[in-house]
């Protein structure tokens, strides 16, 4: 089972390294294909004054240190096509943000790197519309058939977080998890699925629901999970309201495995 987890953003080196250290037992769990996730630049914050991160150059240095010290594979977002090539030299999984999932130049630039590409489904798109972003990646990598098997071989994943319906919250249609698997391995973004975007100048959410959403997705059957976590979500500089504490993350992961084992998925 793929688990992508870490703080929302690279807040500062000491905090990030502390979180990375606390995730070491999860990285050593033989059931888990572990990836450390954080953003070097949160370019889509609600407010212009919100913390964004250290930027590309400094962020890649921190990711390289994490890889060298802990042996982790790492995941980060890119927002502009020029970021793909330098990020691809360090990053194992390049993540395409949901709002940018149709951006052809960004997808093609990412596809030209050796990294696996995790495309987040736009909150404004139906599941079947994600065939086209996958096709852009696969075609760039010399593959014409859009299928789960083709994407698995080429290193293309899809990530579901829900849809917005105009009332300030995300709603997950669990059918989408099955529909997306027509095109690629599917990662369920449990923490962003409970996000309440742009409330009062910041993004809110309710992390109480995260374990329930994750367990529902585990019952449907997915290839992996995306969780944002922190030693203290109350002081996190981005997405704190929908993060899991690291201790709660471990509990949730164990519950996911129990569900999947009971259903014979493992």
For this entry, give a set of tags:
globular; 266 residues; alpha/beta; 35% helix; 13 strands
Helices and strands in order:
Layout: E1 2-6, H1 13-22, H2 24-27, E2 33-37, H3 56-70, E3 73-77, H4 84-88, E4 93-96, H5 104-111, E5 116-120, H6 131-140, H7 148-154, E6 156-160, E7 163-164, E8 170-171, H8 175-180, E9 186-189, E10 195-199, E11 202-205, H9 210-220, E12 224-230, E13 244-245, H10 246-262
Helix pairs in contact: 5-6, 9-10
Task: Write structural notes for this entry.
- The model has no long low-confidence stretch (mean pLDDT 92).
- The longest helix has 17 residues, at 246-262.
- With 266 residues, the protein is of the alpha/beta class.
- The protein is 35% helix and 21% strand.
- The strands form 3 sheets. Strands 1-2-3-4-5-6-9-12 form an 8-stranded parallel β-barrel, surrounded by 5 helices. Strands 7-8 form a two-stranded antiparallel sheet.
- The radius of gyration is 17 Å and the shape is globular.
- It is built from 10 helices and 13 strands.
- A hairpin with a 5-residue loop joins β7 (163-164) and β8.
- It has helices at 13-22, 24-27, 56-70, 84-88, 104-111, 131-140, 148-154, 175-180, 210-220, 246-262, and strands at residues 2-6, 33-37, 73-77, 93-96, 116-120, 156-160, 163-164, 170-171, 186-189, 195-199, 202-205, 224-230, 244-245.
Major sheet description: 8 strands, parallel, barrel
Helix content: 25-40%
Number of helices: 10
- The fraction of residues in strands falls at 15-25%
Give the C-alpha Rg: 17 Å
- Estimated structural class: alpha/beta
Order of SSEs, N→C?
A: EHHEHEHEHEHHEEEHEEEHEEH
Sheet with most strands: strand arrangement = 1-2-3-4-5-6-9-12
Name the overall outline.
globular
Q: Summarize model confidence as the mean pLDDT.
A: 92
N-end to C-end Cα span: 9 Å
Low-confidence stretches: none
| Number of strand elements | 13
